[in-house]
Amino acid sequence: MAGRWVPWLVIGLWLALAVVMVPLSGKLSSVTTDRAVDTLPAGAESTKVAVLEDSLPGGEDNTFVFVYHRAGALTDADRATVQRHYNTLAKRYPPKTAAAGEDDDDSPTRLSTDRQAMVFTLDVSTTHGAPEALVGPLRDAAKDRPAGLQLEVTGPAAIDGDLDAVFDGIDLQVFLTTVIVVTVLLILTYRSPVLWFIPLVAVGAAALTSMATVYLLVKGFGIVVNDQNSALLTILVFGVGTDYALLLIARYRESLHHHENVRVAMVHALRGAAPAIVASAATVVAGLLCLLVADLNSTSGLGPIGAAGILCALVAMLTLFPALLVVLGRRIFWPAIPRFNAAVEAKPGLWGRLGTAISRRRWVATLGSLGILGVLAIGLSGNTGALREQDQFLSAPESVTGFTVLRQHFPELGGQPMTIYTRPAYQDQILDVVKRTPGVAQAAPGETSGGWTDISVFPADAPDTAAEYDTIKRVRTAVHAVNGAEAIVGGPSAENLDTEVTTSRDEKLVIPLVLAVVLIVLGLLLRAIVAPLILMATVIVSFAAAFGGSVFVFDTILGFKGVDYSVPLLAFLFLVALGVDYNIFLTSRAREETVRLGTREGMLKALSATGGVITSAGLVLAATFAVLATLPLVMLIEVGFLVAFGVLLDALLVRSVLVPALTLLIGRRMWWPSRLSRPVELPDDRRPLVDDQEPALQR
C-alpha cells in the first residue's frame, strides 16, 4: 500500500472481479438442493433406495396422506366427499399402484374403527413437481367439504414440503438480517457516521464473491449445497470478515498516531495484524476442510463451502478493505480523527485495570473462570436426545398435526412407511418375512419395473422414535437373512436413522481430526508446545460449558424436545475453529510484546491493546450467528444460539480472564520450547510500562 497508485489498482481489480462474480452469485440458489438422494449418507442403505427410485421409470413418488375426521361419527356426506376428493386427485395424479393401507375390498379409502376418520394415500410422481410445489395445490383441491369435516394433509412428502417452505427465501432473509445486525453493531462500535460503511462494503464484496465461488465449485466438482449450508455461508463470511475488519482498524488507528503518511501507516498496520488474521483464517479453513472425511453429504459439502467463504473474506479484508481506508484517508474516522503525534490522555482503561486485577489474583481468576464453565457444563446432563423430524418446527404445521390425528384414529398407520426393493422372484418370500417381523403393522406389495419390485411397510410406532428405529433395524436384519435375495430398505424414517447413525460416526472421526489440525496450526503460529495445548484445553472446556448452558435453555426455557443430530458437530467445529481465533489474536500479540517486555508485561500489554477490539469482534460474530435464531426451525435456532453463546463465553471469559490468568501462572514456560521461554526478566523497578497510554499499570 506504500505506492500512491497501489490502492487504486486494488480497488480497480475488485471492480473488475465484481463484473464477473456478481452475476454468478445470483445463480447459487439454482444449484442448492435438499433432495434426499443428494444429502443422505453416501454409502447408506436408504441412499441406495433413493437412487434406485430415481432411476426407475416414473421416478420417485411423493407420498401424501389425507386424514379426514369429525368430532362425532362421519356422515354419509363426509364419506362421499372423501371418495370424491380421491377420485379427482387420482385423475390428476394417476397412481402407479394401489394406495397403501387400503381395505381388503380394494377401496382406495379407509374408515377408522371408531368411525370418526377416513384416510387415503396419494402417491404423486416427482415428474409432477417437488413436495413444496405440490402440497399447497393438494390442500387447496380438498377445501370443498361439509362444515365440520376436518382435513390434514400429512405424510412424508407433506413434511418435506412444509420443511422446504421454511427455507423458501431464507438466503435473502439471512443476508438482509445479517447486514442490518452488522451495520447497527459497527455504528455503535465506531460512533462514526461513515466509518461503519467501509467494512460493510468490503464484507459484502467478500460475501458475493464467496457465493459465486461456491457456485463454480458446485458446477465444477459436484459439491452438495443445501439451503442450510447456503445460510451458514452468509453468516460465516459476515461474522469472520467483520472480525478481521475490527482487528485491522484497531491496528491502523494505532499506527496513524505514529506515521503521518496514511499509506505507510497502513503498511505497518498490516504487518502487525495480518499474521494473526491469516493464522485465524488458516485455523478455520483447516477445521472446515476436516469435514471432507465425513460420510454425510450435507456435512462434507459444508467443508469446501465454508472454506471458500473464509478465504474470500480473508482476501477482501486484506486487500480491498485496506485500499478503501487508504484512499479515504484519516477523515474516514471523523469525528474522532487519529492525529499524528497527538497527545493521548493518560488513563488506566478498562482492560488495563482488568489485567492488573488478574495479575494480582491469578489463582482466583483461574479457579473462578473454571468454576463458571464447570457449572454451565452441568447442563449436559439434560435432554440431549435426538430431535425428531416432526419436532423441528417452531410452530407445528399441518403435516405434523396430521400425524397426531392419524395415530389417534389409525394406530396401525401411525409410522412413516418404509420402502423395500427386492427382485420379483423373492417378493412373496420377503413380504412374508416382513409381515412376521415384530413392530410391523402392515405390509403391502407394490409394482414391478426395471427388474425390481417394491413393498410398502408401515411400522406400528410413531415416526422417528427409538421403537420405530428398532423396527427398521429388525426389518433390515430379516430381509438380509433371506438367502439369495437382493433386498434394500429405505424410506423417510430409514433415511433419518441412517443420517443419525452416520453423523454419530462422523463425529468420532471429524472431532479428533479438527483438534489435531487446529493444534498443529497453533503450534506453527506460536512456535511453542505448551501454549497451543493450554489454548486447546480452554477451548474444549468452553465448548462443554456452552453446550451445557444451551441444553439447559433448550430444555427448560424453550421447551425443545431434543437436540438435532447435526448440532453437536457443527457447533463444535464453529466454536473450536472460531473460538480459538480470539486466543490467536491475544496470544500472537502477547508473543510479540513478550520479546521486549517479558512474559508478564507482554500479556498485560496484549490484553490492554486487544481487549476492546476482541470483545467487539466477539459481539459481532455472536450477533451474526444469533440471526439463525430468528428462523422458525428448531435446528437453526439451536445452532445459532449455541454458537453465539459459545463465542460470547470465549470472548468475554475465556480470552479475557482464563487465558491471561493461566499465562501469568505458567510464566515463561508458556512459550516452551521457543527462546521466549528463556528471557532475562527485568527487576520490578526497571520494568517498562504495560501501556504508554496507561501509566497506572506501572508497578
Automatic annotation (TrEMBL):
One of the Pfam families matching this protein, by short name: MMPL
Gene Ontology terms: cellular component: plasma membrane
Domain SSD span(s) in chain numbering: 208-327, 556-664
Family matches, as InterPro entries: MMPL_dom, Mycobact_MmpL, SSD
UniProt keyword annotation of Cell inner membrane present: no
Keyword list, A-Z: Cell membrane, Membrane, Transmembrane, Transmembrane helix
Membrane is among the record's keywords: yes
Topology of this chain in the membrane: Multi-pass membrane protein
Subcellular location: Cell membrane
Domain of life where this protein originates: Bacteria
Transmembrane segment boundaries: 5-24, 172-190, 197-218, 230-252, 273-294, 306-329, 363-382, 509-526, 533-553, 565-585, 606-629, 641-666
Family as reported in the entry's similarity comment: Belongs to the resistance-nodulation-cell division (RND) (TC 2.A.6) family. MmpL subfamily.
Protein name stated in the entry: Putative integral membrane protein
Organism: Actinoplanes friuliensis DSM 7358
